[in-house]
Design goal:
Largest sheet: 12 strands, antiparallel, barrel
Strand order of the largest sheet: 2-3-4-5-6-7-8-9-10-11-12-13
Structural class: mainly beta
Order of helices and strands: HHEEEEEEHEEEEEEE
CATH superfamily: Phospholipase A1
Number of strands: 13
């Protein structure tokens, strides 16, 4: 007789396996001939548009807190031990309205974005939920040729999993639940050149229920190849991000992602990214922000 916890474990493992297999379908069936890539440096609108497609600002791929839909297998190394984690995210950004700017080539866009990020202990019998983060925000984006910027105000709340609280856990990972909830304003600017993008900017917590220090900064560099690999729809990419927060004594956090981007031949928005990832710093998993560790793994990101 299979227990409820074992049945849950089988279901979660099948879910992870199914998503990984689905990601390799493009390699099997292939995509047909595709039109040339759009020149995102020339994104302009001549009139106000409701519910525009796509975004004006492209956030760093290595940012673990950006609203994206992904599934990632990670090996988490703590000071005294290590174990396997399944990281899942469901999120996206939806354009509400775009309007031309004051110049000939600049454009503004207001969107709404949201995401849920969750981490599961794959080494436990019932694949315990460790932490879940909920984010909702309103990004205001701007683009003029290779220059772009985004101001985003967002809310984040983080919660420990019930099984994590009830069952014995790794001593290094054991945490006391706090009411981690805050609202942040984030300002980012970016410049693009020959497939490279440089991004940097500050963030400031404008309200919080916890005793948190307010300021943080980030800077990153992204690259996406101009030439296709294997098939016309496939491009190599790499992303490096450095983040530092006053609450963690400005200790830098580094995240690196690299892989292949497989986009739809019919729309720029739909794509799958298959990547490897390495992180070193204070964990970006909500309630565990004080814990300094590292992880590495592989994952799949889906853009709708």
């Amino acid at each position: 007789m299979i227990s409820a916890s074992e049945r849950k474990g089988y279901t979660m493992r099948n879910f992870f396996v199914g998503l990984f297999l689905a990601a390799f379908l493009p390699f099997i069936v292939g995509f047909g001939d595709v039109p040339p890539d759009k020149n995102i440096e020339q994104v302009t609108v001549k009139k106000t548009i409701l519910f525009p497609q796509g975004q004006l600002f492209y956030a760093p791929m290595a940012n673990p807190r950006e609203p994206r839909t992904h599934v990632t297998y990670l090996r988490l190394n703590l000071p005294g031990s290590s174990f396997n984690i399944g990281s899942i995210g469901f999120g996206d950004s939806f354009g509400l309205v775009s309007t031309p700017g004051w110049g000939q080539d600049d454009t503004w866009q207001l969107s709404i974005s949201g995401a849920v990020f969750a981490q599961f202990n794959l080494d436990s019998s019932s694949l315990d939920l460790i932490n879940a983060d909920y984010i909702i925000g309103f990004p205001l984006s701007y683009r003029n040729g290779p220059w772009s910027a985004r101001a985003r105000i967002f809310h984040q709340s983080s919660h420990l999993g019930d099984e994590f609280l009830l069952l014995p856990q790794n001593p290094e990972l054991k945490a006391t639940r706090i009411n981690l909830s805050f609202e942040t304003i984030e300002l980012l600017g970016a410049w693009e050149w020959n497939g490279f993008q440089l991004t940097a900017g500050p963030s400031y917590i404008i309200h919080t229920d916890s005793d948190l220090k307010r300021s943080s900064v980030q800077a990153g560099i992204d690259y996406q190849s101009r030439e296709p690999v294997f098939k016309p729809t496939m491009r190599l990419f790499a992303s490096v991000l450095c983040h530092a927060w006053e609450e963690t004594d400005w200790n830098p956090d580094f995240n690196v992602k690299a892989g292949i981007n497989i986009r739809s031949p019919y729309t720029e928005k739909r794509a799958i990214q298959i990547f490897g990832e390495y992180y070193h710093g204070n964990l970006p998993f909500g309630q565990f922000y004080k814990l300094r560790a590292e992880y590495y793994g592989v994952g799949i990101n889906v853009s709708f």
